[in-house]
């Protein structure tokens, strides 16, 4: 029987209207790769950035076995595990961390094209260097999120890149002939950048928000943080990205211990490297987690957050609401959540309702910084 894509769920990720667990791009990738899936032996198929399991489980339903899978988001990995169990395919897929071993001896790689060209470059380089010489990459996405620059990135790592016909507003790129090295002088991953004005070096893997730079919202937040619960012995950098806030807090408050957490594996790896680059690894503890699930109730006096507002490609405020609720749970009475957000999102009423009394700390033409106090 054909695989039932409609049975897939996003849980424990945000679910809601307009947020689907699979789409036409998943089905097109699997259709374009159908013959290759049938020819591949156990362990020869790798699936990367498969949002909730459509590619891995679709391939398994077509007969693939020992499918190696890497998902950047911990919520996506958990959704795949639950979807695999529900479909009776749990034994057919094997989650792995991102690295050369993921792609070792692979003959077919199925990929949901990331929106970030840097992420695509890092992935292509890893698979070209570690996969079999006859590996075929079948990568697809929604046309509105694709660009010709994606073809150029793949062409730097593969001898041939073919483009499928469009179907249901989706398209697939197929790459063959991996090269172990790209053009001379091209920088590799991860990459670092020194920011003397902040006194921090930022290190980033491909695709992490703002890369090795520091986005203007985070800069605006950092300008205000000297006043954030100055006597707190510990702090949390929630949705930490590259860990620049955690590193800045630890550098400017020598007695402070910081927990940095993000649901993205690439972000958590980047934050660890950022802490190490600033000689702060002993005071910045980095975890990959869904929000603050690893922290106890009423355990922290200061949480700092620059909330993401995209779920995959969809604009959605449910992620911020989830993080606000988690912060409210973890803050001790009188503790504060310091948050920067795009002013048009108007988060203040939500913060008041979910966390507690909220004051505006600063505002400019684009961003608002607020401090929300947990009721005593």
From TrEMBL:
InterPro entries assigned to the protein according to its UniProt record, in alphabetical order: DNA_methylase_N6_adenine_CS, RlmG_N, RsmC/RlmG, SAM-dependent_MTases_sf, Small_mtfrase_dom
UniProt cross-references to SUPFAM superfamilies, sorted A to Z: S-adenosyl-L-methionine-dependent methyltransferases
The Methyltransferase small domain, residue ranges: 200-370
Residues of the RlmG N-terminal domain: 7-176
Domain of life of the native organism: Bacteria
PROSITE patterns xrefs: N6_MTASE
EC class (word): transferase
EC number: 2.1.1.172
Keywords assigned: Cytoplasm, Methyltransferase, rRNA processing, Transferase
Region Disordered, residue ranges: 170-193
Signal peptide: none
GO molecular function terms attached to this record: 16S rRNA (guanine(1207)-N(2))-methyltransferase activity
The protein's name: 16S rRNA (Guanine1207-N2)-methyltransferase
Organism from which the protein derives: Agromyces ramosus
């Amino acid at each position: 029987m054909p695989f039932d894509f409609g049975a897939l769920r996003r849980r424990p990720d945000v679910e809601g209207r307009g947020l689907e667990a699979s789409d036409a791009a998943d089905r097109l990738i699997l259709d374009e790769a159908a013959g290759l899936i049938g020819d591949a032996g156990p362990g020869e198929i790798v699936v990367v950035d498969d949002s909730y399991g459509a590619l891995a489980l679709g391939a398994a339903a077509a007969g693939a076995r020992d499918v190696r899978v890497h998902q950047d988001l911990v919520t996506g990995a958990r959704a795949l595990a639950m979807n695999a169990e529900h479909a009776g395919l749990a034994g057919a897929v094997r989650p792995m961390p991102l690295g050369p071993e993921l792609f070792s001896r692979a003959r077919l790689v199925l990929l949901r094209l990331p929106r970030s060209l840097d992420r695509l470059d890092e992935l292509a380089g890893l698979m070209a260097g570690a996969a079999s010489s006859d590996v075929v990459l079948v990568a697809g996405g929604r046309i509105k999120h694709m660009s010709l620059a994606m073809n150029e990135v793949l062409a730097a790592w593969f001898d041939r890149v073919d483009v499928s016909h469009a179907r249901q507003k989706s398209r697939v790129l197929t790459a063959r002939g991996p090269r172990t090295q790209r053009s001379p002088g091209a920088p590799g991953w991860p990459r670092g950048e020194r920011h003397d004005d902040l006194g921090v070096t930022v290190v980033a893997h491909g695709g992490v928000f703002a890369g090795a730079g520091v986005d203007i919202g985070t800069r605006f937040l950092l300008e205000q943080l000297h006043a954030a619960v100055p006597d707190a012995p510990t702090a949390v950098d929630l949705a930490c990205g590259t860990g620049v806030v955690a590193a800045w807090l630890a550098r400017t408050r020598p007695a402070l211990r910081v927990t940095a957490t993000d649901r993205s594996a690439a972000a958590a790896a980047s934050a660890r490297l950022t802490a190490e680059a600033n000689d702060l690894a002993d005071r910045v503890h980095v975890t990959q987690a869904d929000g603050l699930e690893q922290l106890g109730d009423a355990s922290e006096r200061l949480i700092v957050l620059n909330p993401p507002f995209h779920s995959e490609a969809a604009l959605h405020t449910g992620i911020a609401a989830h993080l606000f609720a988690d912060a409210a749970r973890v803050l001790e009475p009188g503790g504060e959540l310091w948050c920067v957000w795009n002013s048009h999102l108007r988060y203040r009423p939500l913060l008041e309702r979910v966390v507690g009394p909220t004051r505006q700390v600063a505002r400019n033409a684009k961003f608002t910084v607020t401090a929300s106090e947990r009721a005593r």
